[in-house]
Amino acid sequence: MIEVIQISRGGSGGVTGAKILAEAAMYEGLDSQAIPKYGSERRGATVLAYVRFDTKPIRIHSPVYNSNHALILDLDLLDEIDVDTVDKEGVIIINAKEVPDQLKGTRRKVAYVDATGISQDMGLVISGFTLVNMTMLGAFVKGTNIVSLDNLVKAIKNFWGERRAPKNVEAAIRAYEETEVVVA
What we know:
This protein is α/β, with parallel strands linked by helices. The chain is 34% helix and 25% strand.
C-alpha cells in the first residue's frame, strides 16, 4: 500500500485535490481512498488529508502516520509535518520556488513547483484564496509516477465538468511541466 499525507490551508482546495487524486488512481486500476481530517476549521486553517493506493482492497480507514509521500500545498506548513515520518525512498512534493532550507542536505527526494504563481497566473483565486490543488496534483504526478497525467486529467474533467475543467486541467499540466524533482 502507498500512503500519502497532505497538508494544506482551508480554502486552497486540499480536500478536493485529495478526492481527485484518489479518483485518478482508480483509473489506473488501483483501489484508493481519500480521507480528510478537519473539524470546524475554516479558510486559512491547517487541514490534513490522507490518500491511500493499493492493488488490493484497502481495509483500513485511519489517519496516515508514516507516509510514503508528503504533499505540502503551502510552504509555511512545512514545519507542521514531521518529514522523518515520510519514507526515506518517498517524495516530498512542495509548493515552493526552490528547495526549502529545511530540506537542503537531507538527501530526500523533493519535487517542487511554484503552484501559487501558476494558479494566480491562471486566475484560480476565489475570495482572495489561491487554489493550488490542481497545480499540486500535477507536481505529485511528476514526482511520484503513481498515476499518469492522462488519468489525472480524466479525473479533473470528471470532477469539474465541462465548464470549469479547462483552467484546472491547464494548471495541472503546466505544474507537471514546471515541477523540478531533485535530491536535496
